What does this fold into?
Amino acid sequence: MVTGWPDRRLIDLFGIEAPILLAPMAGAGGVELAVAAMAGGALGSLPCAMLTPEQVREQVAAVRGRSQAPLNLNFFCHKPAPAPAQSRWLAALEPYYREYGVGLPAEPPPLRAPFSDAMCAIVEETRPELVSFHFGLPDAPLLDRVRASAAKIIASATTVAEARWLDARGVDAVIAQGFEAGGHAGRFLPADPAAQMGLFALLPQIVDAVAVPVIAAGGIADARGVTAAFALGAAGVQIGTAYLHCPESLIGPGHRAALTSEDAERTVFTNLISGGFARGVPNRLIEELGPVSPDAPPFPHATAALAELRKAAEARGRTDFTPLWSGQTARLARPIGAREFTQRLISEALALLTQRASAPILAP
Amino acid sequence: MVTGWPDRRLIDLFGIEAPILLAPMAGAGGVELAVAAMAGGALGSLPCAMLTPEQVREQVAAVRGRSQAPLNLNFFCHKPAPAPAQSRWLAALEPYYREYGVGLPAEPPPLRAPFSDAMCAIVEETRPELVSFHFGLPDAPLLDRVRASAAKIIASATTVAEARWLDARGVDAVIAQGFEAGGHAGRFLPADPAAQMGLFALLPQIVDAVAVPVIAAGGIADARGVTAAFALGAAGVQIGTAYLHCPESLIGPGHRAALTSEDAERTVFTNLISGGFARGVPNRLIEELGPVSPDAPPFPHATAALAELRKAAEARGRTDFTPLWSGQTARLARPIGAREFTQRLISEALALLTQRASAPILAP
It folds into this structure.
C-alpha cells in the first residue's frame, strides 16, 4: 500500500494503518462506531467512563470478534468530589421540575466514574493495544499495571504545562486537546478556563515542549484539518464530532439534528450538564440559565438532578436537557457511515499531503 | 524569484511579494514597524484608529518616503455608544485611585474613533493600496468613496455569518479572525462571546462560505502556522503578536517582558481595558477584578477612567493597568527585527510548503 504520511511515528508505535484516532465519546461511541472506524483504517476507541467493568469486557469481546485491528480503551481519571449539597442547583431547576412534573430520580443514576482497580483488572484481562486517559493519569500503582499490560498509554493535555506533566510521567503520546473540541475538556491542572487555547496555538507549543509524538484533537473534521494538524507538528489526529454524524453513533435524533443546524456554529462550554466544562450546542437549559452557573455542583454531580428531566423531555421529542456535545466543526462533516468517512478522510488527506509532490515550483 | 505559494490570489490582487500581512495594532504599530515588515516582504499596515487625520497623513508620507511597497490603512467601524454613567466603574477603581493618588483625567483622553468623513478624505488624498476595517464596514456612502479611491477593501469576521455579511457587501477579501488573536475581537454582528471559534474551526467554514479569498488571523506566529493556514484554505495570513516582539513595535518594556513570560500562555479576553472584548496577558487589574466585569462601560469608554492609573503605574515601572495585548502564540516568536522576522518567515514557509516536492512517497 502506498502511503504518504509525513510522520510515521504513531503508525509504527501503535501498529495502525493511518494516524487517525476515533475519539472516545462516552454515551455516543460504542462497539458499532469503533468497528466501523477500524474497518475504514482508523484506530478504534471504546469510551469506558460510563460503563461497568463487565460492560467493558463485553464490548471488547464484541469488537475483537469483528476486527483484528488495534483497540483503544478510554478512561477518566478525575478525583470525584463527595456529593455536595445541591439546594441551589435544585432551586434553579425547580421551574423545570414543575413544568415536566418530575423531580430527583428515585435512584441516583450511575455517574462518570474514574479508572479503578476493577477497571485495571479488565485492562489486564482484555489487553487493549492502547489505553487513553482523560483528566490526567491514574495514580502510579494503577498506571504501572496498565504499562505492564503492554498497552501504549496516551492522555489529553489542554495546556503546555499539562503536556509537560504527562511527558514527565512517561506517556507514549500526548493528545493536544484544543478549545474547539466537543465534550469534556480534559483539563486536570489548575488553570483559568478563560485562558483555554485554540488548537492552532496549543498544538505547536506542545510539540515544542514534549519529546513524545503529539496527537491533535479539537476542530478537525475533514482532510484539510488533518493536513493542517500535520503542518503544525502533529503526528496524528483524534476526531470526535465528525463521527457523531455517523449512523453508528449512539446519539438521539435531536442531537443529530442539532449537529447540522445553524446552532452548531455557536457551541459553548457549559458546566450545567455534568458540573465539568464541556462543549456542546446550547440546549434549552443552557439558553435559559446561561452556559456557566455557579449553582451547578462539581463534576460529575450535576447530572443526577437532570436525569428525570432529560428522560421526560426526550419522551416528548425534545432536547431541553439533553447534552448536545459537539466541537466547533460539526458543520464540516456529513452523515455518512463511519467506515466510508474514515476511508475518504484518509485518501483525501493523503492526496493533500502529497499533492505538492507533483506541483511545480513556479517562477512568476 | 522562485516562489512556491500555493495560492497566488492575494499576491496578484494586492500586488505584493508574499501573502503575509502585518496586522494593524493600534498603539503598538506605526511607521517603523510597517516599513521594516514591508522591507522583509510583508504587506505593511498602519493602525489609524487612535490617530488624527493629520497624523495619518504624516505617517503615510513617512512610509511612502521609505518604501514603494503597497500599504494598508486600518480603521475601526464601531458605532460609539454615548458616554455612559460610570459610577459603578469608578467605584470599582476607587481602591486603585487611592493607592496611586490619582483620579479621572482632567481632560478626557482621545478614544478609539470610528472611520469618518475626515478620515475618508485622507484615504482619497493618500491613496493607500488597501484599506482594512475592524468591527464591520462603514456606511455605504463612505465605503463607496473608499472603493472609488481604488483601494482594495478587506475586513475582519469572527463568525461565518459575519464573513457572509462582508462578502455580500463586496469586500475584496475576508480576514477570518480566530479566537486566538490578540487585541480587539472584530465581532460586529450580535453573537455570544462564549461561542467564539478557534481559527482551526473558523477558517475552513469561512472559506466554504464566501467567494473571495480568506486571510487567516489569530494564532499564527511561525512558518508552521502559515503552512497550516494554507492547508485550511487560507489565501494569506495576517500576523500581529509575533511582530509585537520586534524592536520596531511601540510597546513598553513591561508589555515586552509579558510576551516572553509564562503568563503569555494564559491570555484572556477582557473588557476592562476599553469596554470591548480584547485578548491580552492578564495585568494586575484583570487578575484582581476578573477578566470580564459588567461594571466596565461599553467600548471604547472604559479607557478614560484608567488613563491616570496607567500613567502613574508605568511611571513606577509597573504594568498594573497597561494593556498587555497578545494573541495565544506570543511564546512561539522571538525579539528579532521585523524585516528579518518577515524574511525568515517567508523563506521557512516556502520551504515547508514545497518540501514535499522532493519527498518520495513511501511504500511501507
Observations:
- Chain A touches chain B through 60 residues (CB under 8 Å).
- Residues 38 and 112 of chain A are 26 Å apart (CA to CA).
- Chain A has 14 helices and eleven strands.
- The longest strand of chain A covers residues 71-76.
